[in-house]
Amino acid sequence: MESEVFGVNSGVTVVAHELKAPLSLMRQLALSMELEEDEAALRRTGERIATTSERALRQVEDLTRVARLDDALFEMEPVNPRLVCDDVVRELWHFFEFNRRELRLEYRNKKRLVVANRQLLYSVIYNFCLNAMNYGGEELPSIVTICDKYGTKVRVAVRDFGPAIPTKLWREIKNGLVRQPVEIAMRPGSSGLGLYIASKFTQYMHGDFGLIRHRDGTSFYIDLPVSGQLSFV
Fold first, then answer.
1. Residue 20 has pLDDT above 70, yes or no
2. Residue 152 CB burial class (10 angstroms; 0-12, 13-18, ≥19)
């Protein structure tokens, strides 16, 4: 496993841009509050600042975790992916609602437990959902699906209805790894940094990271090995 978080200039540029964007938005929102007199509008702006800062902090925390993967600090254990997805949706529900988006859950797995690190799996699903939010609407919800695969794995997938993934990135993901944070030109608002983080965490958990290209969107997924142990996490 690579010990560095990223080592190519283009990757550094993508990270800098993605971390700068929420800071610029928060500054703009804070300045707008100075001119706003309506209490309801002030409250909404304050909530948006809080949500934006939380997302930015999570990205920084995830990058720190990527840098420390070689330290083997993240224990693998039996994890219930349904409970992890429930927690992710609970955190993001208000954000989806604020942006007039819908997030739907479809659980079809009979195998209930996987071998994973709960914290890392949470971040993978969180990043998939956050990307999907940009490409949907009231009639086109983002869909989180859990299903059994091959009898030995469980797949957690997030479906969106956005533009096609560029062929170069599709081939890289098909080979199992996003090697550095990338800008997805055909998908403005989509986080190449989020996909990079998801790829690295999946690799650490000995899972499979991939995508399915549909005629009207993309499903990003992670396949994890089934665990036969009991767990309540």
1. no
2. exposed
